[in-house]
Amino acid sequence: MAGGKEIKTITDYMGDETRVSPAEREQIESEVARIGKRVEEREKLKCGEAEAHG
Hints:
The chain contains 2 helices and no strands. By secondary structure, the chain is an all-alpha fold.
């Protein structure tokens, strides 16, 4: 436990600057957004393929 605060969620962990610096948090959030966009695009492609074969 950093500073005696119990970490129960990823939000708790990410909000604890003794564990994740603001720069690291910004990089992680950027990567998460980029991955999310790729997942959305992949889902759109899958839906399009299903309709084409449907």
